[in-house]
C-alpha cells in the first residue's frame, strides 16, 4: 500500500514539473544590429507555438553607420510584401517619425520602434499557435532585403 502511494506521488511531481517547464517558460531572445552592415547578428531562432516571447533589439552604441533599425515579425511568406510596402512608405513624410518606419500592412504581427544607436527596444508577445516560419525584418529604408531572418515556430 505504501509503495503504491509513493509511486503515485512521484508521478504527480514529475508531471507537474514537465508542464511548468514547457508552457510557462519565456523565450528570451536578443538580437543586435551590426555596427557596419545592415544585418542582425542572428539569422534565425526557434520558439514554441503559443509560447511567451521577449525579444530585444539592440543597436550598439559604437555603431559606425549610426543608422536606426527596427524589427517587424510578419506572417509566413510575407517578408517581400512588407519590405516593398516600406519602400513605398518613404512617400509619407511621417514614415520615419510617427510611423517609426512601420508600413501599413495587415501582414505585420509585431513591431518595435525605430531604435537609435546606443538604444534598445523589447517586444513581448505570444508566439503564433500555428507552427511555421515567420520572417523578421528591419523596415528602415534600404535595409530589409538583407536585414532579415526567420522565427521558427515549432510544436
Ligand atoms: Cu536596419
Point out poorly predicted stretches. 5-21
Structural class of the helices, strands and pairings? alpha/beta
CATH class value: Mainly Beta
> Rounded to an integer, what's the Rg over CA atoms?
20 Å
Residue share in helices?
10-25%
* Total domain units: 1
Head-to-tail CA distance between termini: 39 Å
Based on CA inertia axes, which overall geometry fits?
globular
For the largest beta-sheet, the strand count, sense and barrel status come to: 5 strands, mixed
Strands in their spatial order, largest beta sheet: 2-8-7-4-5
Number of strands: 8
How much of the sequence lies in strands comes to: 25-35%
The fourth-level CATH homologous superfamily is: Cupredoxins -  blue copper proteins
Number of helices: 2
Distinct small-molecule ligands in the complex: copper (II) ion
CATH fold-level assignment:
Immunoglobulin-like
Q: What would you say the CATH architecture is?
A: Sandwich
What is the N-to-C order of secondary-structure elements (H for helix, E for strand)?
A: HEEEEHEEEE
Query: Whole-number average pLDDT?
Result: 89
Amino acid at each position: 500500500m505504501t509503495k503504491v502511494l509513493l509511486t503515485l506521488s512521484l508521478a504527480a511531481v514529475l508531471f507537474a514539473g514537465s508542464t511548468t517547464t514547457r508552457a510557462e517558460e519565456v523565450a528570451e531572445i536578443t538580437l543586435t544590429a551590426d555596427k557596419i552592415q545592415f544585418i542582425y547578428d542572428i539569422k534565425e531562432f526557434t520558439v514554441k507555438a503559443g509560447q511567451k516571447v521577449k525579444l530585444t533589439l539592440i543597436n550598439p552604441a559604437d555603431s559606425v553607420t549610426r543608422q536606426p533599425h527596427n524589427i517587424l515579425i510578419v506572417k509566413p511568406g510575407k517578408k517581400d510584401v512588407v519590405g516593398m510596402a516600406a519602400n513605398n512608405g518613404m512617400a509619407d513624410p511621417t514614415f520615419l517619425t510617427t510611423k517609426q518606419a512601420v508600413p501599413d500592412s495587415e501582414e505585420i504581427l509585431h513591431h518595435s520602434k525605430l531604435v537609435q544607436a546606443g538604444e534598445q527596444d523589447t517586444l513581448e508577445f505570444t508566439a503564433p499557435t500555428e507552427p511555421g516560419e515567420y520572417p523578421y525584418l528591419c523596415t528602415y529604408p534600404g535595409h530589409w532585403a538583407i536585414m532579415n531572418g526567420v522565427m521558427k515556430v515549432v510544436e
